[in-house]
Every structure is written in C-alpha cells, then in structure tokens.
Amino acid sequence: MTLTLAENFRAIFYTPFYLLKTLGLAEQAGFELKWLPPGSPGGAIESIKNGSVDLTWGGPMRVMKDHDTTPANGQSLLCFGEVVARDPFFLIGKKNLGRFELAQLRQLRLALVSEVPTPWLCLQADLRDLGLNVAKIESSLKRGLSMNEQIQALKAGTLDAAHLFEPLASELLTDPDYQLLYAGHTRGPTVYTTLICSRDGWDKHHLAFTALNDVLCELLTWMHAQTPAMIVTLVQSFFPGLSPRILEHTITRYLQNGIWAQSPKMSKTGFDRLSYSLHSGGFIRTQINFATCVTPLDQPNT
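Now predict its structure.
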C-alpha cells in the first residue's frame, strides 16, 4: 500500500519524520510513503480534507480549529502519532537584562511570531497563568516580523526579546551578548506536532495508519537511545546550509529538554494544555474535547 504524506515546512523539531524517511522504516514495515514536498505551515490541510492527500504532520491546533468551526463529517480532521510533545520555542534577549522572569515582559519590547500562531498562543497562556494583563502586553507587541527579522531588530536595539525556534536560537546564543530568557518546554507537556488525517481517511487506511504509528513507536524509542552526533549524520541533508556543529547542538538541546515524545501515544495532558492555550487566546471558541479529535489509537479507556 502507498500512502501520500505531505511534509510540513522544514524545521529541526520535525527531525523524527526525517529519520523515518532516511531510514526507510515505512518500507521495512511493508508499505510505501510517497513524500510530498514541504509547503507553507498547514498548507496540506485542505488536501487532507478533500482526500487528495492521506496524511500530513503539524499542530493539533489545526484539528482543534477544524472541530471548533466546521460541523462533524467525513472530512473532519483527526490526529494520532504524537512526535513533538513540548513547546520548541525560546525567548532570547540581551545579557544586560540580567536574571529574567516572565513578568518582566510587561516592560520589554517583544515581537509576535508571524510564521505560525501556536508559539504566542502558548506563551500568552503562560503569562495569563501568572496573573498578567495579557491584553496590555499584546497591544504593544511588534507584529509582522519573521523570526530572522526579529533577530535583526534585536541586534539593532529595537526589540528586547525575540521568540525563536532552533537553529535560530542556538545561532544567536553563540554570541556572548545574548542569553536564554525562557524556554517553552519548561511549561510541561504541550502536544505540538502529530500526524493528521481525516475521518474518511482513517476509515479507509486505518490498518496502514496503525502500522505507521507502530513504526513511530519503534523510531522514537530508537532515537532517544542515539547520540546527537549519530542523528546529525542521518538528517544533515535536510539542512544543507546549516553547520553540523550547530545542528548537533540543537538536537542535543531538544533531546535534553524532552521536546520529542517518548511514545506516539497522544498525551491527554499535553492536548488539554494546548486546547486551554488556544481557547484563552481566542483562537477557538470552546476548549476542544480530546476524544473527538483523536483516532481510535488514542481513545481514552471507558
């Protein structure tokens, strides 16, 4: 059997999927994955819903948004195969900020990540949990800056903190003038990336999807037993412009911080935290029920 899998945008925190491809694990399990090239974040969602693509990967936030805005039917999105289990974003600022606490963001110039919505939605929930006036902080955010533009603004002195993922965070931290202010992973479980299919797709391909989930289980176990240097040798070709040293550093950081799941079994705790963050930020109207969004692989016991 052949499954079409649409790659999401290229990012280091998607490393387990690149390992899946490089190692040929799907083929070893008896089915073929036809990889479609990367596009814009969430760009394959409509193709999943209309059945022209079987699978993509990305944030369950897209599944939650679908359930929040669209009546349930065969095109409704489902998720399985948790891969990124914690927030992979960081706040980076100048060393002269000294010892940092999130409450200081009330006085700092911060930019909103423009490429994807999830990082700010998760961060604002952290701020709200501290009792901070998020609306006031949000009103002063600089909008429309890419992560690379945030770095330029930080260096130019027009920003106090940048919100970045790897390898941008590690590249910036090679400069002794900058420090890590806050790491999203310290929040705890927050389901960030899974495989996404439709209900019709699950009904049609559930045996192959289950086999793929089993492959991911073996892969995640294997990956956590490897050295970062070994992983770099397998995924370096996906990042041709990045030095092996920086790639190894970023993979080390992500492994040490528990960014990647130990198992593809969906974390209800992590799912509920994401749902809470999206709801508190106004991205969805109601908190979405775990059981309605996951495949039978992850249904809670009754």
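The beta strands are 2-6, 32-36, 55-58, 77-84, 90-94, 161-164, 178-183, 193-198.
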